Amino acid sequence: MNRLALIPVLVSLASVYPTAQAPATAPATPAAKATLKDAQGKTLGEATLRDAAAGVLVKLDLLNVPPGPHALHIHTVGKCDAPDFMTAGGHFNPTTMKHGLLAAGGPHAGDMPNLFVPADGKLSIEVLDSNVTLAAGAKSLFDADGSALVLHATADDYATDPAGNAGGRIACGVVTR
Ligand SMILES: [Cu+2]
Ligand SMILES: [Zn+2]
After folding, report:
1. Which residue in 33, 34, 62, 175 could disulfide with 45, CB within 3.0 to 4.6 Å?
2. Minimum-distance ligand to the CA of 93?
3. Nearest ligand, CA of residue 166?
4. Rounded to whole angstroms, how far apart are CA atoms 167 and 151?
5. CA of 7 to the centre of ligand 2 (A)
6. Which ligand approaches the C-alpha of residue 86 most closely?
7. How far apart are CA 122 and CA 139, in angstroms?
8. 56-102 pLDDT, tens per residue?
């Protein structure tokens, strides 16, 4: 093969590489986070929240959580005082609905599906809460008193007002920018 025959090959490589090397630009959506800590202050997981067209996408990476079903909610105050986390208040409910994804007159904006944690206590999952936003407005998680993610001891029955009969609050994380 002579030197001239190589030129077309080099030209075609040059036209491919610029696109392959261009870094993907991160989506310009406002993001938020929360670190879930238990009553002893031990971290049980990290949450990343992103504004989506249809609500807020919550990515959770949990560890050392007791296996089994657990309710997950957004509570109305951005305050997580151990050990019972009652300072987080009730479920985020700016539209004055009843509790429960399966309840007549529900749900609260902060109601989300149960998590099922496997035997090793680790779970990575994404959940869409379609009734809240990170942007300004009535459904904003960044309202005057903020908001918190709360994990419960047992499952939400999706019906019992006001909290789904989900047992105690085993972990809590304030939603921050
Ligand atoms: Cu809750
Ligand atoms: Zn609720």
Report:
1. 62
2. 2
3. 1
4. 10
5. 67
6. 1
7. 30
8. 999 999 999 999 999 999 999 999 999 999 999 999 999 999 999 99
Q: Residues of the chain whose pLDDT is less than 70?
A: 1-30
Structural domains in the chain plus CATH codes: 31-174 (2.60.40.200)
What does the DSSP assignment read for 100-132? Answer: -TTSTT---TTB---EEE-TTS-EEEEEEETT-
If you measure from the C-alpha of residue 91 to the centroid of ligand 1, how many angstroms do you get, rounded to a whole number?
A: 6
d(CA 143, CA 75): 12
- Tokens describing residue 32: 């938020």
Ligand lying nearest the CA atom of residue 112: 2
Strand partners for 111: 73
pTM of the model: 0.84
